[in-house]
Request: fold
Amino acid sequence: MRMTGVLLVTALALLLAVGSPVNGCPPSDRAALLSFKAALNEPYLGIFNSWSGSDCCTNWYGVSCDPETKRVADIILRGESEDPIFEKAGRSGYMTGSISPSLCQLDRLTSLVLADWKDISGEIPPCLASLPHLRILDLIGNKLSGDIPADIGKLSRLTVLNLADNQISGSIPPSIVNLKSLMHLDLSNNKLCGEIPSDIGKLSMMSRALLSRNQLTGPIPCSLTNINRLADLDLSMNQITGSIPGQLGSMPVLSTLNLDSNRLSGEIPTSLLSNTGLNILNLSRNSLEGNVPDVFGPKTYFTLLDLSYNNLRGSIPKSLSCAKYIGHLDLSNNHLCGAIPVGSPFDHLEASSFANNDCLCGTPLRTC
Ligand SMILES: *[C@@H]1O[C@H](CO)[C@@H](O)[C@H](O)[C@H]1NC(C)=O
Reply:
């Protein structure tokens, strides 16, 4: 009798310690979430009020678990969203504090989205690079500083890395080229310096690479042109030097290319303007020289073609008047000369598209 009692008590104690397998998250996941919460302060919406009780898988705002293992799989907290709590509060999200390294104990985490909270500061915990299941890391729109974790390349399943609109400094870690699943890279509007890794072309799944508004130097890596899925490349507002690789014009799906406000020199590659899949091209505010290649045709379709503020010479190519469509054209602030071609692509353009050149004439400027 006595023995049975001891056994029962032991069994009960074991059950309590392990937790019931079907109800709720493991206490260790819950504890990690509570430490994460403790390092943040969200004064206006009260989203963390829901983070109470023992089952972190149920009704904890922004938290979801794997239905089978009950391990925490996603933390998705967006400071700008359609969720009614924002409408009710009549404002967008705001948080201070920092990202606790306790998150790194959530070793089944697949998504970490902590976006647009404006004032979360401190560094990105380097241990996040050790979360083997992480697919989405989106920390856009905060005040994070410090370096991108050097080991970031260990995240072999990562498809989205969005650290835009923060104050992240240092250089882009060389290991980044090992993110073999990466599709979307956004590091825009930070304080990154140094060169873009020359072997960035190893990111063969990448379709968007957005690195604008940093202090990046060095050339446009040629290897970038090997990324066959790349559709959107934005390197604008950096200090990138050298010439524009001609192979950029032969990329199969590239449709948006923003290289404006850099220190690029040399001529505009012919292939860039003859590529009919490229619809948005901004090369404004560089030191490009030579003529505008005369390679336009009936398939030319640019919603935006901005070549302003360079040192382009010669005349506006006649072939541009055969283009199927030119939405916004800006050739201002160069050294172009001669008659502006006549044709439907030019009908809607204003004088400002041609202003401040050496000797352009014809509609919409003065008659020749
Ligand atoms: C092209 O880039 C320039 C310089 O960065 C910028 O001022 C301009 O607004 C861009 N053009 C368009 C139409 O977005």
